[in-house]
Design a protein that fits this description.
Layout (H helix, E strand, L loop, with lengths): L13 H12 L2 H13 L3 H29 L5 H6 L4 H36 L10 H11 L3 H18 L1 H29 L5 H8 L8 H14 L6 H7 L7 H29 L10 H12 L3 H34 L4 H21 L14 H28 L2 H9 L7 H28 L1
Helix pairs in contact: 1-8, 1-12, 1-14, 2-10, 2-12, 3-10, 3-11, 3-12, 3-16, 3-18, 5-7, 5-14, 5-15, 5-16, 6-13, 7-8, 7-14, 7-15, 8-12, 8-14, 9-12, 11-14, 13-14, 14-15, 15-16, 16-18
The structure holds phenylalanine.
Phenylalanine binds next to α1, α2, α5, α10 and α14.
């Protein structure tokens, strides 16, 4: 087995690793996608299914991805070369995961640009005096314009490029250590504020008293897909970060902590948004516009709403930034290691690609909205292909690799970091979930995603 560890960077501490993993997982998926999906899928019942998916499918899947990175000490393509020498198919699967991160970046950077735009808008007090319905107009005129979103997207990408350029330890670890706890504090403040609003209790009971009569196959699929997206699974992220982890790290514990913090952020985001939606008599099933249209409207009616708006869009921006940083790292690590390119050059190359397709995604909201491929505009095509096809495929490959290709003793050695951690029965359960439950469940999502 080729040992790459000598020349590779690594996380300095377990805390640094954890904040970087959580920084990737916590993003627009939690603060923007989760609340609106929960709102459109009936609230509490959706949350319960989401939690079940996290425990029984995503957790074993995350540990598996982590393990492949950790055991190989290589990028998402190289990992399979190290662990399955001479078997090209696995490497192709790794390359698909890297492409998945690259493609997610193309539309994610557009939404990241919107968050930055809204941060500036709120700094300029754009939402202090809006009348009913005006926020929808502000949002639409922003997304359809040619230059505004593209400029903000460029700034967003430039900031993430600078952080990545600095490398794992100076870049990802240092910034995540500051930004993630800050993010947590700000979102808690907004959630407390929101829950104390008169009429907020209806929002809380929407989130916490389940009505299973509204659950159907679509709800389960939505919850499962969201769990996947939110934990950044199947796109090479956990694998790449896992490769920077020193020996002796407790992989199941790190994965568990990441899943717990990601889920806490999602629930907190729900608690920041839903009670306020109900308190102001708005609809929870507003859809993807929930954050950008409904929230500014709520902020405009709140006491100290200007400050809260600034804090919220700052949080959203930071969350999007730490997530895109992780996608960028997947691609940069792969290009730098596979093609022996300097990190700086790999960053520039990746950003150039993302810029070109990001601009197309952005324009597809306005001037290019008539340009449809398979009935979808460019933005939706990137979104659909990555989350419904590529991520699920990547996830499936990872659990099949660990469950069926890797040798059982090697898997157990990775679970326990040399026999140090946790009860063996737990490993058996974990192995069973990885080998049988997760692949079947992921295959079902994939099939349903494709025929939908
Ligand atoms: N998990 C991130 C979010 O919730 C998105 C993401 C997907 C990040 C894939 C990295 C890789 O926003």
């Amino acid at each position: 087995m080729k040992d790459n560890s000598a020349k590779r960077a690594s996380f300095r501490s377990s805390f640094g690793l954890l904040v970087a993993l959580a920084g990737s997982a916590v993003g627009l998926g939690n603060l923007w996608r989760f609340p609106y999906l929960m709102g459109t899928n009936g609230g509490a019942a959706f949350i319960i299914i989401y939690l079940i998916c996290i425990v029984f499918i995503c957790l074993p899947m995350m540990i598996s991805e982590f393990m492949i990175g950790h055991a190989s000490k290589s990028d998402a393509v190289g990992a399979f070369r190290v662990l399955a020498p001479g078997q090209k198919g696995w490497r192709v699967a790794g390359a698909i995961a890297v492409l998945c991160s690259l493609f997610i970046m193309c539309f994610y950077s557009v939404v990241g640009g919107w968050t930055l735009d809204y941060l500036f808008k709120s700094l300029g007090m754009a939402f202090s005096d809006v009348s009913e319905g005006q926020c929808a107009g502000i949002f639409t005129s922003m997304v359809v314009s040619r230059w505004e979103p593209v400029i903000f997207m460029t700034v967003f990408l430039a900031v993430s490029g600078l952080i990545i350029w600095a490398g794992v330890e100076k870049g990802i670890e240092r910034y995540s250590k500051i930004l993630m706890p800050l993010l947590f504090v700000i979102i808690v403040i907004i959630a407390v504020y929101s829950c104390l609003l008169p009429g907020a209790s209806a929002g809380l009971s929407f989130m916490f008293s389940p009505d299973f009569s509204k659950v159907n196959g679509g709800t389960i699929l939505a919850a499962l897909g969201q769990a996947f997206f939110s934990l950044s699974l199947g796109a090479g992220m956990v694998l790449t970060y896992g490769s920077y982890v020193k020996e002796g790290e407790n992989i199941p514990k790190m994965s568990l902590l990441t899943a717990i913090s990601d889920t806490c952020f999602a629930l907190l985001a729900g608690m920041a948004i839903m009670p306020a939606v109900f308190a102001f008599g708005l609809s929870p099933s507003e859809g993807p516009g929930l954050v950008f249209i409904v929230l500014p409207e709520i902020f405009s009616k709140m006491v100290s709403g200007d400050i809260i708006a600034i804090a919220f869009f700052f949080v959203l921006f930071v969350a999007a930034l730490t997530s895109i940083i992780s996608m960028l790292e997947v691609v940069v690590a792969c290009i730098a290691e596979e093609f022996r390119m300097k990190r700086g050059a790999a960053v520039l190359l990746t950003l150039a690609f993302v810029m070109v397709f990001g601009i197309l995604c952005s324009l597809s909201q306005g001037v290019l909205s008539d340009c449809l491929i398979f009935g979808k505009n460019i933005f939706d095509l990137f979104d659909y292909t990555t989350s419904n096809i590529m991520m699920t495929f990547g996830g499936l490959v990872v659990v099949i690799f660990v469950g069926w290709k890797m040798k059982k003793p090697d898997v157990f050695a990775e679970y326990s970091a040399g026999g140090k951690f946790v009860h063996p029965v737990l490993y058996k359960v974990l192995y069973f979930l990885t080998k049988y439950v997760a692949p079947v469940a992921i295959a079902v999502i994939m099939v349903c995603g494709l025929i939908k």
